[in-house]
Amino acid sequence: MKTPSIILYFLGIISGALSLFSLFYTVRLFLVTRGLTVLNTGGQGAYIGAIAFPILALIFGFATWVFLKSARNKSK
After folding, report:
1. What whole-number distance in Å separates Cα of residue 18 and Cα of residue 23?
2. pTM, entire model
C-alpha cells in the first residue's frame, strides 16, 4: 500500500516542528545554565537534557528530510 504524499508532507511538517523545538530547548538549556556551569540543587537532569535534546533534534531533522524527500518523489 502506497502512502499518499499529503500524509508524508504532514509527517514532515510535524517532525520538523519537533526538531525545531528540540533545537530551541537545547539552546535555552545552555543559556539558562550558562553552559551547564550553573545548576540548581538537584538540577542534574540538565546533563541528560544536554545529551537528549540535540540527539532528538538530529533524529527529527533526519525524519523531516526523509518524509519531505519521499513526498516530493511520490508527487512526480
Report:
1. 9
2. 0.84
The DSSP symbol for 1 reads -
Give the mean model confidence (pLDDT) for residues 35-41: 76
Q: Which domain holds residue 63?
A: 5-75
Integer Cα distance of 48 and 24 in angstroms: 16
Collapse the DSSP code of 76 into the 3-class scheme (helix H, G, I; strand E, B; otherwise coil) and give the result: coil
What total number of domains does the chain contain?
1
| Contact in structure between 5 and 67 (CB atoms under 8 Å) | no
Are 67 and 12 in contact by the 8 Å Cβ rule? The answer is yes
Query: HEC profile for 44-70?
Result: CHHHHHHHHHHHHHHHHHHHHHHHHHH
Cell of residue 74, nine digits: 511520490
52-69 pLDDT, tens digit per residue, is 999 999 999 999 999 999
> Which cell numbers in the block locate residue 71?
513526498
